[in-house]
Amino acid sequence: ADARWFAEVLGGGLRLTEAQLARERQRVLGEVRNMTGFLPGGVLQWQARERMLDGPAGRTGIGVAAQLGRVTLDELRSTVAATHHAGNVLVVAVGRVHPERDLPFWTELLGGLEARETPEPVAWERPADLADEAPHPNVGAVFGSLAFRAPGARDPDLPAFLVAASLVLQRAQVDRKPRGAQLEAQFFPASYAFLEAPELFLLNLRGEDGQEAAAVREDLEGWLGRLRARNLAEPLLAMPKHSLVWFFLPPELDRAGRRAFSANPRELYRLGLSRGTSLVRGLPADLAARIQAVGPEAVKAALERWFAADKGRFVALVPGRPDKGR
Question: What is the per-residue DSSP string for 261-294?
Fold first, then answer.
């Protein structure tokens, strides 16, 4: 039933109304206000993306409430028409798939649909630049984040970067031991979700009470510098590599791996998301194998190239209330 409803949407059967737009606008505005104004961790992630990335809305962040409030029904219909059509669909099936039974179903369902001519999507209005330090009412101390650009999907350095990013994340969790205030407001050492938007890596830290933003930045950059200077050995990379298996699975899983992923729907969904994202983003088919082949020298070189202090952008939230006009 869900699949047939999806085919109806792709065939242009979705009828959007002003009431639906009003209802959805309120729901999305609530989420956007949380992520761009209320939750410190989300605010910093959004601000880092706005500063580091260029391009359409999918790269610059989720937008601001004022912009979403101006979306009209005609613009919404235009955007749906430009995205929800048969020429823009990738179907990924995981689980107990039987081609002789399932492929005819999908062929019948989607085979008769044609990609239709659609208007251009609404142009994205880039938000105005913000200061690197911004007051925020929901922080009791400085919240700082170092943001680093990631290589592109086809960059030969991508496997080494991913292992290096995973190493930075895990060493931050070990060395910083984030507990209590460090976990406040969903804020902890984190990488931006690999499968959703792997353009950025974020290294976060909550400062001590009364500490200045400059001291938090110095702390983050100093810790990262010590990690870059550290001698790396293969055993140190075992866990960072293993954690990436959950994002970039090998094309063929062994029996134990298949059993693990078929144990619950969440794992099957993650497997489908991994497969679909790899295809849509153009990730190399052998990325999982290349990740496992990365050695200590390549990781050290990636740390020097991609995680040098001059390659990062520091943004911070400090205790206080912003001006009402901003």
Answer: HTSSHHHHHHHHHHHHHHHHHT--TTHHHHHHH-
Distance CA 42, CA 53 (A): 16
The pair of structure tokens assigned to 85 is 């059509």
Could you tell me which residues come within 8 angstroms of residue 244 by beta carbon, excluding any fewer than 6 positions away? 162, 163, 166, 194, 288, 291
Query: How does pLDDT run along the chain (326 residues), one tens digit per residue?
Result: 578 888 888 888 888 999 999 999 999 888 888 877 888 877 887 778 777 776 554 455 556 677 788 889 998 888 888 888 888 888 888 777 888 888 888 888 887 777 666 666 556 565 566 678 889 888 889 999 888 888 888 889 999 999 998 899 888 888 877 666 666 544 444 444 555 556 778 888 888 889 999 999 999 999 999 999 999 999 999 999 988 876 777 667 778 877 777 777 887 887 787 788 788 878 888 888 999 999 999 999 999 999 998 898 899 999 988 775 44
Q: Phi/psi of residue 237, each to 5°?
A: -95, -5
- Find tokens 């990365």 and name the residue: 294
**Do 277 and 304 form a contact (C-beta atoms < 8 A)?**
no
Q: From 177, 174, 178, 169, select the one nearest 203 (Cα to Cα).
A: 169
Closest C-alpha to 317, from 131, 188, 148 = 131
What secondary structure letter does DSSP report for 37?
A: I
Tokens for 13, please give them: 């059967």
Name beta bridge partners: 149: 200
CA distance 138 to 321: 9
pTM: 0.80
DSSP one-letter code for 34: I
Tokens coding 27: 């729901």
Query: Amino acid identity, residue 247?
Result: F
State which amino acid sits at residue 200: L
| Spatial distance between the Cα atoms of 271 and 246, rounded to a whole number of angstroms | 8
